[in-house]
């Protein structure tokens, strides 16, 4: 509910700023035309992920991972890394944070190890692992629009190097910080049969078809919406009680819409010139690092979404736009509000009784965020 209230407040603030700055209705229509496919994708993919979780797909995957790990925590952790990156890349960072957090926490408890390295792996890689595809992050979908519809393959070819580095750096930090916990052995858990085989198999089929469809070149909201409708139809027959209003991420949509409107109005009030002065110009490695650093700082001060919108006009080239994405995707690891995925992650942890103070989170983030942004930006700069 807090997210929805903040979103409503942002809509009011954005509307007031729009009136005060003389924003034209045509400009607001252009903004709406740009963001509605993004928000429709978010709604659709969230419904797909929630229903797949109801069908126990993610629990079964977690149990299979535990069995494949063969009693070695570090091997299981490596599998969780792969699962987290894949989920983030194809289902978006918010979806990964919401659905994987309870899976990895329950999994860690079942095998008798600390859930913290697994929980931090989820939230860090949900953010830093969101550079691979347009669907991985709302910021990427917005950037793809600026890249003239480059498509999933083109986007991946542009971001693959910084994306891999952005995954590697947090993994190295986690391996060092939690080396003792990850070295412990565990007893593999007993596999529990799924409650409804038809729902489970239907969800698996939908996900298997959806993943390649998201990178097929279609506008991503089309396959996501089709998948949501297909799964909803199956659940309407097999388990209608699961089709509840809470499946729809209305608070997230309200929050995102409020951010879009507020930042758009703030840009008309002079935010663009301020960010441009801070971000500088040029495509040299130092220039790209400056832009990525400003974007990362903006994400931690505001949120990654408004930080992207504020920094986007300062890009001006593909290379600089990727630097912005590195900053706002891989950088928001310090403050709780830097990424909505982080807030959702912490809410799930609290519900599961797992405690990690924001001070510890911020302290670790102050180590990993600068390392990740700098390493990813320089890797991109020398290989572009």
TrEMBL record:
Protein name from the UniProt record: Arsenic transporter
InterPro entries xref list: Arsenical_pump_ArsB, Cit_transptr-like_dom
GO molecular function, one term: arsenite transmembrane transporter activity
Any one of the GO BP annotations: response to arsenic-containing substance
Compartment(s) of residence: Cell membrane
Protein family membership: Belongs to the ArsB family.
Domain named Citrate transporter-like: residues: 12-316
Native organism: Labedella phragmitis
Lineage start: Bacteria, Bacillati, Actinomycetota, Actinomycetes, Micrococcales
Any GO CC annotation of this UniProt entry: plasma membrane
PANTHER family: TRANSPORTER ARSB-RELATED
